[in-house]
Design brief:
With 395 residues, this protein is α/β, with parallel strands linked by helices. It has 14 helices and 14 strands. A 9-stranded mixed β-sheet has the order 3-2-1-7-9-8-5-6-4. It starts with a strand and ends in a 26-residue tail after the last helix.
């Protein structure tokens, strides 16, 4: 049995890892680690100066730096705040995933006071467009884990097992759970099922015919398309702040929009507020049009069931529900029962930040790695520790 099991989802706005320390106990206690996506290769002197002059005692994952061979990487909160790193949405996920994964593994080892040598069972989710890289990725991961340095301490981790699945596979594996009082689900082997994931960077479709994965596709139709359009129509708006305001409601309040105003001239503030509000409304309608046009072209004709998830999908739930009805599709599964389990498992952090829809795929993968069904709601154990986060709302 491996010492640690990790299910990781390398989101473009937030890296999610659900993990457990394995023991002989029958009770399975999943814990959560969240890391900002920024990764920056930096000179050794920069790391040396950071360690020399830093103040306070941040958690390992929020002060993460990694040495891999001769290269040093700042990861997550450290890269974002101390080195002002920007996460590139155009790069492949695997380009930044190795330092992110080492930060996750090192963060777990240090927060749980483990030794520097242990074994790991790892599951990861990749967009369909990068899924073909899984064998090459496994080679890189195994090599990196075998010897790296995290925050000045060396680790030698044995990759005991590796599972790579396309995004959405965790939902399909464990997401077909009826809501409380719901009807019994039909056997997946009898159905044609589309799994739709809409995140910050991209949108993905998996199509399962009679229980077997048939095909998939990924396009850059994530929430960032809408954010970029708002930025084109406004002056000097930052993506993170726009996400926070736009996701505060289906139509952001006047007070929320006022927080985006940049001018100091009182007579111009009202005009800028109106321009920002109009830009958000126009960009949303255009984004919905682009996204639904793509879905209309790529979704199979009248699937028996559509499983939908992702922070962006939840933001657009009313519009997407209406769109699916217009297609004449079968049942739409928004994974509400999986939602409830995630909220109950990880508690206040997930409730406060509305993170549950962004954790479902990794949560399903986690239980698949353990070859266990989801716990019954009444048996779900809320974890009081191991939950850390960076600010982000849509992925």
């Amino acid at each position: 049995m491996p010492d640690v099991t990790v299910a990781a989802d390398f989101g473009a706005s937030l890296v999610r890892a659900i993990f457990s320390l394995n023991s002989q106990s029958q009770a399975l206690k999943p814990e959560l680690m969240l890391i900002a996506p920024q990764v920056l290769r930096v000179p050794f002197k920069s790391i040396e100066n950071y360690e020399k002059y830093k103040l306070g005692n941040s958690t390992p994952e929020n002060s993460a730096w990694v040495k891999l061979e001769d290269d040093y990487y700042a990861v997550g909160h450290l890269a974002k705040t101390h080195f002002n790193a920007v996460h590139c949405l155009e790069s492949l996920k695997i380009d930044s995933a190795i330092p992110q994964l080492l930060a996750i593994v090192g963060g777990i080892a240090q927060s749980k006071q483990m030794g520097n040598s242990f074994s790991l069972s790892l599951g990861i989710l990749l967009p369909w467009g990068e899924y073909t890289d899984r064998e090459r990725f496994e080679i890189y991961i195994k090599q990196a884990l075998s010897g790296f340095c995290f925050r000045g301490k060396e680790y030698f981790v044995t990759l005991e097992s590796f599972t790579c699945l396309p995004e959405g596979a965790g939902l399909f594996a464990r997401g077909r759970v009826p809501h409380k009082g719901g009807d019994r689900l039909r056997n997946a082997r009898e159905l044609n099922i589309a799994v739709l994931m809409i995140g910050y960077r991209n949108a993905s479709i998996l199509f399962i015919e009679k229980g077997a994965l048939s095909w998939g596709c990924t396009e850059n139709y994530g929430f960032s398309r809408m954010i970029e359009k708002v930025q084109q129509f406004t002056s000097g708006q930052k993506a993170e702040k726009l996400v926070e305001v736009i996701c505060s409601g289906s139509k952001p309040s006047k007070r929320a929009v006022a927080g985006l105003v940049r001018t100091n001239m009182v007579q111009l503030r009202e005009q800028e507020m109106q321009e920002i509000a109009a830009a958000i409304a126009d960009a949303k309608q255009e984004y919905i049009a682009i996204l639904t046009n793509w879905l209309r072209q790529r979704l199979p004709d009248r699937p028996d069931e559509i499983i939908v998830n992702g922070g962006t999908a939840r933001y657009l739930q009313p519009e997407l529900t209406q769109f699916f009805k217009s297609l004449g599709a079968g049942a739409t599964n928004w994974c509400n029962s999986l939602d409830e389990r995630v909220v109950k498992t990880f508690g206040d952090l997930v409730r406060a930040q509305h993170l549950q829809s962004r954790l479902l795929d990794a949560y399903g993968l986690f239980f698949q790695l353990h070859n266990r069904p989801l716990p019954r709601l009444r048996d779900t154990i809320e974890t009081a520790e191991g939950a850390h986060h960076e600010e982000a709302r849509v992925s």
